[in-house]
Amino acid sequence: MRHGYASFLIAHCLRRFNGERTLAAVYHLFSGKKSAQTLQDSKWFRLEPLFGTWKNVTIADLETAAQVLAEQRLAVPGAGRTYRLTEAGERWLDEQSMFFPRHLNGWRYHDIEQTFWQRLSLVGQTLSNLVHGQRFTPICRDERTLLWVKQYVLANGSRQTLAAAFYEELIRLLGTVSEEAATVFTLRLTSAARIGWTAEQIAADLQTDVLYVQFQFRNVLHYMMAEAEAGRAPLMAELMAGLAPVQLTQSAQKTYEWLQKGKTMEEIAALRRLKRSTIEDHIVEIAANVPSFSIAPFVEAGKAASIQAAARALGARKLRHIREALGGAASYFEIRLVLAKEVGRWMN
């Protein structure tokens, strides 16, 4: 890919952030930082697919990628570490849209994708070797995964039958993604005949970007997990047993449990020995992630409507601008809460 896949990913984020966030926000997004601000940014700017999908990224990586865009006049630097795409950058990004991993869902799967992959790859390796009557060294060394796979294979009766079903389901799933994505995923698998390749080996063989290979692989992995959750991939669903995606951080979950018991913010803060601002962060996170959660106890309906109207009119996500438009009549907490709850309704 011309300009590199990192620059493509950065350009996607720059378009969504539109100069309202710095490269630090991009860094926290990719690395999966579970701070209130990053979680909110993921929702507000519709960047959930990329959350936690490039965990080893560095600020230097992002600065280099942004500089490449600037040198090619696809982006221009702004105040601080902000960048905006130029008209040429917008056109270029549109032309490269086919390279975005459309099944990616980092927001939902980033915490459990590694365990799912370890199970899938080890089950595949185990069945392949058992069917061929060969001894082997497990590709995965994680003790919990080794135990899980051993129990799974033993509990499923005929190894030949399980191996055939496993193969058929993989072939069916890979048949619905692009040929390139299927190739990348298949090359990662280990069998009785071969050891799975690394992303670097695959990139060298396909003469492409290592980061692109990593995202193609993760794209297929997330697709399989989504199909499993939708009930369309029963064996993949078995591999996801006990790996329910986490929608709330552990601390926010505890606050949510107290709210469900009728406790007020002040009571929860006292019980948990946390600042009120921390509890507010939790409530915003809950509002963004739990569809059934009502914000009525925290912001009056008329004020919520005014916040929504101001947000639509301004087309911005900077809280200060919205608060100024309302003459200071709403607190930052109330604005954040309404935006978190209504983000899907008014954002383009």
Order of strands across the biggest sheet?
1-2
- Looking at the structure, what is the overall shape? globular
- Note the beta-strand portion: under 5%
Average pLDDT figure: 92
Number of domain units: 3
The total beta strand count reads 2
What percent of residues adopt helix (DSSP H or I)? 55-70%
How would you describe what is shown here?
The protein has 348 residues and is an all-alpha fold. It folds into 3 domains: 96 residues, Winged helix-like DNA-binding domain superfamily/Winged helix DNA-binding domain (Arc Repressor Mutant, subunit A, Orthogonal Bundle), CATH 1.10.10.10; 127 residues, no CATH class; 97 residues, no CATH class. The chain contains 19 helices and 2 strands. A hairpin with a 5-residue loop joins strand 1 and strand 2. Helix 10 packs across helix 12.
Task: Give the secondary structure arrangement, pairings included.
Layout: H1 5-17, H2 23-31, H3 36-44, H4 59-71, E1 75-77, E2 83-85, H5 87-95, H6 106-109, H7 113-131, H8 143-155, H9 159-174, H10 179-188, H11 199-206, H12 210-229, H13 234-239, H14 250-260, H15 265-272, H16 276-289, H17 301-314, H18 319-325, H19 332-346
Antiparallel strand pairs: 1-2
Helix pairs in contact: 1-4, 3-16, 7-8, 7-9, 10-12, 11-12, 14-16, 15-16, 16-19, 17-18, 17-19
List keywords for this structure.
348 residues; two-stranded antiparallel ribbon; 3 domains; Arc Repressor Mutant, subunit A; 2% strand; globular; mainly alpha; 63% helix; 19 helices
Summary of the model, kept short:
The chain has helices at residues 5-17, 23-31, 36-44, 59-71, 87-95, 106-109, 113-131, 143-155, 159-174, 179-188, 199-206, 210-229, 234-239, 250-260, 265-272, 276-289, 301-314, 319-325, 332-346; strands spanning 75-77, 83-85. It is an all-alpha fold. Strands 1-2 form a two-stranded antiparallel sheet.
